[in-house]
Amino acid sequence: MASFNTLDDLPDELTGKKVLVRVDLNVPMEGARVTDDTRLRALLPTVLELSDRGAIVLLLSHFGRPRGEVRPDMSTAQLVMPLARLTGRSVRFIEDCQGPEAERALATMLPGNIGVLENTRFHLGEEKNDAELARGMAALGDFYVNDAFSAAHRAHASTEGIARLLPAFAGRAMEKELRALERALGHPERPVAAVVGGAKVSSKLAVLGHLVGKVDHLIIGGGMANTFLAARGVSVGKSLCEHDLTGEAESIFARAEQAGCTIHLPYDVVVAKEFAPNPPSVRTCNVHEVAADEMILDVGPAAVEALADVLKTCRTLVWNGPLGAFETEPFDAATVALARIAAALTKEGGLVSVAGGGDTVAALNHAGVAQDFSFVSTAGGAFLEWMEGRTLPGVAALQQQQGKS
Predict the structure, then answer these.
(1) What is the mean pLDDT of the chain?
(2) Residue 262 CA, distance from chain mean position
(3) Fold observed for domain 7-174
C-alpha cells in the first residue's frame, strides 16, 4: 500500500488553522437519540487532538440519502448535542457545508472550536463529485483530514474531490484502519486464512475471486457454501442455493488450485425442515445425507473442529460474514465457536485477526469476542470493496497527496 500523510505530518502550529475533517455521522437514530454511537466514538481521537492543538475543527459528513433535497429529518444539526456530550466540549452547528453562510459562521470561531457543517448530500453535486462544490468546501479550510474509511469507496466531493484541492491527511481512525488492512492482506504474515460467509455467492463473487490469489486457506460458510457444495455434486435439499452460479463456483475451485489455496467446505452440517428458532426437526448430519425436504442452516461441530485446527496453523485471519443463520438459535453455534477460537488465538499473540462488514460485527458481538480481534472494521461497502482488491477513491486521493503537502 502506498503511504499517506497522517496527523503527525500536519504543521506543529495549528492555532486558528481551519481543518475540514470528513467523518461518518451516519448513525442510527430514534427521535433525538443515537441508538449506536460507534461511529461517533471513532472520530473522537482525531477531533480532540486537532482541537487540543488549537485548530478550528469543521466536521463534514453525509447523513441519510436526501439526494440534493434539504430535509430537516436528515440535518446533521441532530448530531450536535450527541457530539457535545461525547467530546465534553461545546459544538456548534453551521448551516451549510460551503458558501457565504458557512464563511460567515467561520469568521466567529476561535482556536479549538468544533463545528458540524450541514449534510453534504443536501447538495446534488456531492455524489457527483462536482468540482465546484468541492472548491466551495475547500475554500472553508486550510487542511483536509479524511477520517471516514466507511465512505472511502465513494468518489464524492467531500471524500475525493476536496482531497485534491487541500493538503490532505488521514485521521487517526482512518490511519488505524489502513494499517490493519495492510497487515491483513497487503503484507500479511503467512499462512493467511479468510472466512467468507453470508447468504449469496453473487454478492461475494469478486471477493472470493480476489482472495484465492491472496490467501492460503479460504473457509466458505453461510448460504453461499451450499452453492459450492452443489457444484461438487452434493444434494443440498431445499437449502438456499444459487444453482445458476455453480459454474462460477467451479472456476473459483480451479483458480484456487492454481494458486495453491485450499478451499474448506463443511462436511457435517446442521439441518432443519423449517427455518425457525430451535425447530423440532433440527439435526446434525454428514453433508451427503441432507434430505430433499431439509435445509442447511449451519456448519456442523466436526467441521468447526477441523477449521479450528486450520486457524491454529495460521498467522493471519480475515473474516467477513457468518458461517450460518447466526441470528436464529441454534444456528449461531458454528459462528460463535470459530469466532471464540480466533479470539483466543489472537489473545495468545499467535494470530492477527481482522474482521469487517455489518453482519460480521453483529456476529462477533453476539459471540462476545469483537474486542479480542486485532481489528474490527465497522465499514460495510468499503471493507467489501477492499476485500475485492478494488482501489478506494478516498484512500487513493490521500496516497497521491503523499509528499505534496
Answers:
(1) 95
(2) 25
(3) Rossmann fold (3.40.50)
| Long-range contact set of residues 182-186: C-beta below 8 Å, sequence gap at least 24 | 182/1, 183/316, 183/352, 183/354, 183/374, 184/316, 184/318, 184/352, 184/354, 184/375, 185/214, 185/215, 185/318, 185/386, 185/387, 186/1
Asked if 295 and 217 count as a contact pair (C-beta separation under 8 A), the reply is: no
Decide: residue 302, CB within 10 A, 0-12 exposed, 13-18 middle, 19+ buried. Answer: middle
* Mean pLDDT of the 306-333 span: 96
Q: What angle do CA 190, 196, 198 make, to 5 degrees?
A: 170
The predicted structure's pLDDT at residue 358: 75
**Residues taking part in catalysis:** 39, 200, 358, 381
Per CATH, is 188-387 categorized as 3.40.50.720? no
- Closest C-alpha to 87, from 23, 142, 29: 23
Per-residue cell: 133: 462544490
Q: Mean per-residue pLDDT for 175-199?
A: 93
